[in-house]
Design goal:
This is Aldose 1-epimerase. This protein has helices at residues 48-52, 291-295, 300-303; strands spanning 2-5, 8-13, 18-26, 29-31, 58-59, 98-101, 106-112, 119-130, 133-142, 146-148, 150-152, 155-157, 166-170, 175-178, 197-198, 202-203, 209-210, 214-215, 221-227, 233-238, 243-249, 256-263, 276-284, 310-312, 317-328. The protein contains three helices and 25 strands. A hairpin with a 5-residue loop joins β16 and β17 (209-210).
């Protein structure tokens, strides 16, 4: 389904209610900064979310159903899996939603979840507010009281960026945690399990300091960084192209931001070393480690006072608003 306002547009894929493409008009140019996967029509088998991976979608619950069991000392490794959590980033990321167009600039989307879990369903509003801004709303209807990791998943393309040509700007603190182990075996640029270090001075795997706000990294790598107090806005500036992408959200609902630095480090199908992008993902979650790690009070994040779940109440609706906007580079 397509929304149009002036020289801007948004394409919504029914699967996941994913933003498959978006064009913004700023500074006299039309730009398409959000990620579009290169394998959509590839005949090889792949899971539904990978097939439809795009520029933004909601994740309820956020994370994987089967977290790795070899986390380092301080992280629990003996947690039971939530039996109803069967899909990476939630049921809604793998199924078609019902889409209803409300005028030329708004889509309303909804999906009903299986009855064996704590979520009744999701509703999502995508509104093309101007040629430079998409406004979004997510509602989660709860069947049971539950603490769940919830996240939003904007992804900005870096396919055309030279190393270090793009810059992350964080509205709040740049306190950063790296993933507790390699995201992909042997493909991390950053040392694992760094906790509460400035984004501008993380340690690389060769022991040198690296400014992880300057992207993309040289070479091929895959890393995850959790910003624990980013202040509700993280931007990617592209001075080489004259624009900046701002992801803004309510950090009383989603206090952290997971940065997914996908730097051509996945060389297996269908990725084939082709993806260079950054996920700027507002979350209440322990990285993407799933329901039980996020609920646990025995993780380093929990012990540091970082909230890693959203609280759902039976019969009530949890709601949050956010936006993706483009402005001329500052």
């Amino acid at each position: 389904m397509r929304l149009v306002k002036g020289r801007a547009w948004v394409e919504i894929d029914p699967v996941g209610a994913i933003i498959a493409d978006a064009g913004f008009h700023v500074g006299g140019q039309t730009v398409r900064p959000l990620f579009q996967n290169p394998w959509r029509d590839d005949p090889r088998e792949m899971d539904v979310l990978t097939r439809h991976l795009g520029g933004e979608w909601p994740c309820v619950p956020f994370g994987v159903p089967d977290p790795p069991g070899d986390l380092p000392l301080g992280w629990p490794n003996d947690l039971d899996r939530a039996p109803w959590h069967k899909h990476a980033h939630g049921f809604g990321a793998h199924r078609p939603w019902t889409l209803t167009q409300d005028g030329a600039q708004t889509v309303l989307a909804e999906i009903t979840y299986p009855e064996d879990g704590p979520v009744v369903g999701l509703k999502r509003r995508v509104h093309l507010a101007s040629e430079s801004e998409i406004q979004l709303e997510l509602e989660v209807s709860a069947r049971q009281d539950a603490a769940l990791p919830i996240g939003l998943h904007p992804v900005v393309s870096l396919a055309d960026a030279a190393p270090g040509a793009a810059f992350l700007r964080v509205a709040g603190e740049d306190s950063a945690w790296t993933f507790p182990r390699d995201v992909e075996p042997g493909r991390s640029r950053l040392q694992a399990n760094q906790q509460g270090v400035s984004l501008r001075s993380l340690l690389s795997t060769d022991g040198t300091s690296i400014d992880a706000a300057a992207l993309p990294f040289a070479g091929h790598s895959e890393d995850l960084i959790l910003l624990t107090a980013p202040g509700g806005c993280v931007s990617l500036s592209r001075p080489d192209l004259g624009y900046q992408v701002d992801v803004t959200w309510d950090d009383t609902h989603l206090p952290s931001c997971l940065l997914w630095l996908s730097n051509r480090g996945r060389d297996y199908a269908p990725w084939d070393g082709r993806v260079c992008a950054v996920g700027i993902e507002p979350v209440a979650a322990a990285f993407d480690l799933g329901v039980e790690q996020s609920r646990s009070l025995n993780t380093p994040l929990a012990r540091a006072g970082v909230r890693t779940t959203a609280q759902l109440k039976a019969g009530e609706v949890w709601r949050t608003d956010y936006s993706i906007a483009v402005q001329t580079s500052v």
